[in-house]
């Protein structure tokens, strides 16, 4: 597999440190609110990466953190009259609801910054002892000037970084250099804090991820991933502090997903086009959101709009219809040898699988992989004729479900009450036809059609699908 490495700005063959094993660290949410649709993209994209590597026989260890202490959590706690841990617990629980709705697999470990304080302080102490960090007014800062490769991930000239950093120096900060960043922050009155050799305080954002990744994945990761917005300063700073503390390469590959626009404009609270996953899912369901996140190449920007979500709903229905068609065909299938035509169809299914793999091997190209799944669906629909072959049906089912599973699709179930209502109407229509009450049978069929339900009379009975 070849992936685009942000560090080198080119596609490289994925060669993990231990053959057959891949260690991945994904930056998780800061748990002070519901996740928004921008957060959903890395969750879904890198979940597919994990699924695909597992599908290809790799042993994957996947770690995704929760940032459960920082300025945003403190502000939220003050706003709601709660403690920081109470805010974190609430929104970790809400995150799990949305992640499950998006069919995102649980990480092997979900470390929390507050559970790794000893690891964080150990790394801060090491950096101070080596001269890469210094104490100033109760804070501890990293000396960016001591790390000659600072800026190598973001590929920004140092003079540009320095100019931007000079504008970000906060009140009361006493830095040797505007580019220096906080490893440890002295506690303000009333803030949550921990004891340290530097006084009461709490960790900076960047050091949290460095310490958590080292604790659970070792000093060198195979893949570090996250959103494009994290390249600088977060991931740049992770590299600097980790490589200086550990004395070795921090991550072999860096993968970053592109931004999400809303109606072709950058998503922003100030523009009023900011949406949480929860509110979008309430209208469209979770699966169309996941479909949106993987329908384009992960490094490309994507555009969110109601029209796009509606298109995704219809696209998913075509896949669900294909899967239902396979099941219907299986019920009427004959266990017999392949005809020449059926053998050709089975060979075609295998070629679609290879088409899917080639797309995914080329920098996780989920857009082309999804196209291969739809091509397979078309081929399957054509092959499921009036007297299907059982072995062909099973081959279609196996290939179709396998590829859908890698993409994490086709996991939602129809609403049970709707199913029961539709099945009752179908039974009433069948009874009307048997009684030769054709006008009533047609009325029921037309009523279902107005509600977006199409009936199909098959050898195995009446089947239905949404349009």
What's the helix and strand layout?
Layout (H helix, E strand, L loop, with lengths): L1 E4 L4 E4 L7 E6 L10 H19 L3 E6 L6 H10 L3 H18 L15 H13 L3 E4 L2 E4 L15 H9 L14 E6 L14 E3 L1 H13 L3 E7 L3 H16 L4 E7 L2 E3 L2 E2 L10 H8 L2 H8 L7 E3 L1 H27 L7 H22 L4 H18 L6 H18 L8 H19 L3 H13 L2 E6 L2 E6 L1
Helix pairs in contact: 1-9, 2-3, 4-6, 4-7, 6-7, 9-10, 10-12, 10-13, 11-12, 11-13, 12-13, 14-15
Gross CATH architecture of the largest domain: 3-Layer(aba) Sandwich
Main CATH class of the largest domain: Alpha Beta
Mean pLDDT: 92
Question: How many structural domains in the coordinates?
Answer: 3
Radius of gyration: 27 Å
Describe the global form.
elongated
Percent range of helical residues: 40-55%
Give the CATH topology of the largest domain.
Rossmann fold
- Strand percentage, roughly? 15-25%
Largest sheet: 4 strands, parallel
How does the helix and strand content classify structurally? alpha/beta
Number of helices: 15
Could you give the order of strands across the largest sheet? 4-3-9-10
What string, H for helix and E for strand, traces the elements in order?
Answer: EEEHEHHHEEHEEHEHEEEHHEHHHHHHEE
Q: In CATH, what is the homologous superfamily of the largest domain?
A: HUPs
């Amino acid at each position: 597999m070849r992936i685009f490495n942000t560090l080198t700005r080119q596609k490289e063959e994925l060669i993990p440190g231990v053959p057959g094993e891949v260690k991945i660290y994904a930056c998780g949410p800061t748990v002070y609110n519901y996740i928004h649709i921008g957060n959903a993209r890395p969750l879904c994209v890198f979940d597919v990466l994990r699924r695909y590597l597992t599908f290809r026989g790799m042993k994957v260890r996947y770690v995704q953190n929760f940032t459960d202490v920082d300025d945003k959590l403190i502000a939220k706690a003050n706003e709601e009259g709660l403690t920081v841990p109470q805010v974190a617990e609430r929104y970790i629980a809400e995150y799990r609801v949305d992640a499950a709705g998006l069919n995102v697999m649980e990480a092997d470990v979900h470390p929390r910054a507050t559970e790794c304080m000893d690891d964080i302080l150990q790394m801060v102490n090491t950096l101070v002892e080596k001269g890469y960090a210094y104490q100033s007014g109760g804070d501890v800062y990293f000396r960016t000037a001591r790390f000659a490769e600072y800026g190598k991930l973001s590929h920004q000239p140092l003079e540009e970084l320095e100019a931007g950093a000079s504008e970000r120096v906060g009140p009361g900060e006493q830095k040797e250099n505007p580019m220096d960043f906080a490893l440890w922050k002295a506690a303000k009155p009333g803030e949550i804090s921990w004891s340290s050799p530097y006084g009461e305080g709490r960790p900076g954002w960047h050091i949290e991820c460095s310490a958590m990744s080292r604790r659970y994945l070792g000093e060198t990761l195979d893949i570090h991933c996250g959103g494009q917005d994290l390249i600088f300063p977060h991931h740049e700073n992770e590299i600097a502090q980790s490589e200086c503390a550990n004395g070795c390469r921090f991550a072999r590959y860096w993968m970053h997903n592109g931004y999400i626009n809303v109606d072709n404009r950058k998503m922003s609270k100030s523009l009023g086009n900011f949406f949480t996953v929860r509110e979008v899912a309430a209208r469209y369901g979770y699966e169309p959101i996941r479909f949106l996140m993987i329908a384009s190449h992960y490094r490309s920007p994507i555009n969110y709009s109601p029209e796009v979500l509606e298109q995704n709903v219809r696209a998913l229905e075509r896949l669900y219809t294909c899967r239902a068609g396979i099941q219907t065909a299986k019920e009427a299938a004959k266990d017999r040898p392949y005809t020449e035509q059926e053998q050709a169809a089975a060979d075609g299914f295998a070629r679609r699988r290879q088409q899917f793999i080639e797309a995914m091997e080329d920098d996780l190209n989920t857009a082309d992989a999804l196209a291969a799944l739809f091509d397979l669906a078309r081929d399957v629909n054509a092959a499921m004729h009036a007297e299907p072959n059982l072995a062909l049906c099973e081959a279609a089912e196996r290939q179709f479900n396998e590829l859908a599973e890698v993409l994490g699709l086709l996991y939602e179930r129809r609403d049970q009450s709707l199913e029961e209502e539709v099945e009752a109407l179908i039974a009433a229509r069948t009874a009307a036809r048997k009684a030769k009450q054709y006008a009533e049978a047609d009325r029921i069929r037309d009523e279902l059609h107005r509600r977006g339900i199409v009936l199909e009379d098959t050898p195995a009975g009446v089947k239905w699908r949404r349009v």
